[in-house]
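The records we work with from here on pair a chain with its fold. These numbers are not coordinates but entries in a learned vocabulary of local backbone shapes. To see the layout at work, look at the sequence and tokens printed below.
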Amino acid sequence: MFFVAGAKNKGGQGNERSSRSIYQKFREVDLLDKKKTVTALKAGEDRAILLGLGMILSSVMMYFVLGITILRSYADSVWTEEGVCVVLNSTVTADLNCSYNCGADCWRVSKYPCLQIYVSINNTGRVSRLSHNEETQDSSSECFYVPRCQKDSMAMHTMIMNISEHLKVNQQVPCYYDPSEEQESVLLTQLYGHSAVFHSLLWPSCMLTGGTLIIVMVKLTQYLSRLCEEIGKIKR
């Protein structure tokens, strides 16, 4: 009986050791899986933070570029008041020369008609010359519109005459003028108006907001994860 009892004790100890070893193996596998999960999560969080920082940096660069281009032109513009202009006269005064590119180091001369349009602002009796936009005013202070120079001068002539006929039919058009009257000409359209500034600032603002939200969400997730770990340690 002594031998039988000893054999049973040895068998029980062996089973206990084997169960412990199996439990330890499962625990090691579980810990290894947790470490892999934590490592993967940390790598994903790092990538998300880098993405957010990249979006913020890109938006700041876009703000800088817009600040020295569109916003500066918008701030320097004197045509700030919008009104209604009545077309008084629309005539072609002369044909002006322009040059177009015909290949590498090749430039040729063509002609386009210079259309002059005079309007009355808000029926006040103030007569001013109408220009298409700021670029037209800078390139030619006499002509309403300067078409892109091309070889076919008749196509440019037809385009200008169509504009003249359209303005003769629609004599009342919206326009922008200088309220201080320092600039005699008025504009039909604005390149750097409120709408252009809004749309140019919309996308960098969205990118800045998105990058900031990504970083805030990652930091909030990390804080909640540490808080859960501390609560779990306290309960143990």
Q: What stands out?
A: The longest helix spans residues 2-68.
